[in-house]
Amino acid sequence: MKLQVAMDVLTTEEALTLAKQVAEHVDIIELGTPLVKNAGLSAVTAVKEAHPDKVVFADLKTMDAGELEANLAFTAGADLVSVLGSADDSTIAGAVKAARAHQKGVVVDLIGVEDKVTRAQEVRQLGAKFVEFHAGLDEQAKPGYDLSVLLTAGERARVPFSVAGGVNLSTIASVQRAGADVAVAGGSIYGAENPAEAARQLKEAII
Questions:
Q1: Helical H runs in the chain?
Q2: Which of 119, 123, 170, 192 is the most buried (most CB within 10 A)?
Q3: Measuring CA to CA, which residue among 73, 119, 117, 121 is closest to residue 95?
Q4: Within a 10 A sphere around the Cβ of 42, how many other Cβ atoms?
Q5: Are 83 and 56 in contact (CB under 8 A)?
Q6: Mutual orientation of helices 195-205 and 12-22 as an angle, nearest 10°?
Q7: CA–CA separation, 180 vs 66, rounded Å?
Q8: Pairing of the two strands 182-185 and 161-164
Q9: HEC string of 167-190?
Q10: Phi, psi angle pair for 184, to nearest 5°
Q11: Sequence-separated (6 or more) residues with CB below 8 Å from residue 158
């Protein structure tokens, strides 16, 4: 299982600082949606230039104009881009078309999708590299949130998948047991007193 850091910071400078701290312990460096919106795709270019050996993920959460937006991100240096699972099939197909042209990949994010299992299977058929079973920060803050719902859906879907939404040192073993290809850790890394140490511990917890 690979480890992905979700950098939910707001500036290119902060992103470069965090990426430098954790790069040796992670496989995928994700520029979170607020970062891309605030700093622009130049942040993607800066991170890729600083870490050419890492997979750089631009979390665009594209909902429309899939081919156009994916092309922009891939041209900026992204290796992966995200499209929302609630988008039209044509939007996902357009992003996949761009990915194939650049020899890159599309991740379909199932945030807000009710029937995650069915949609995961559908978007995999459309060409998604993997599917992200994702609970956003707002959902995680609601009473009763439980990561196991995502893990169960991921197991049932039987497609390559990542999990995002409460991955930390106490849950990463269960993410791996569920068969996830990628564990996405955000706050448990960037919110730690020592992000490098937090990333190292998560990486070492992966068997």
A1: 12-22, 33-39, 42-50, 66-76, 89-102, 116-125, 137-140, 148-157, 172-177, 187-190, 195-205
A2: 123
A3: 73
A4: 12
A5: no
A6: 50
A7: 25
A8: parallel
A9: CCCCCHHHHHHCCCCEEEECHHHH
A10: -105, 115
A11: 121
Task: Please tell me whether the overall predicted TM-score, pTM, comes out greater than 0.90 for this model.
Answer: yes
Distance CA 187, CA 185 (A): 7
149 within 8 A of 133, measured Cβ to Cβ: no
Q: Using the CB atoms, write b or e for 93-126: b if 16+ within 10 Å.
A: bbbbbbbeebebbbbbbbbebeebbebbebbbeb
- Please tell me what DSSP assigns to residue 131: E
Distance between CA 172 and CA 185 in Å, rounded?
A: 9
Contact predicate 89/68, CB 8 Å: no
Alpha carbon distance 155, 117 (integer Å): 9
Q: Which residue has the tokens 């990426």?
A: 19
Cα atoms in the Cβ-side hemisphere of radius 13 Å centred on 101: 14
- Cα–Cα distance measured from residue 171 to residue 177, given in angstroms and rounded to the nearest whole number: 10
Whole-number average pLDDT of the chain: 97
Which candidate, 140, 190, 141, 132, places its Cα nearest to that of 160? 132
Identify the pLDDT of residue 207: 84
End-to-end Cα distance, the chain: 8
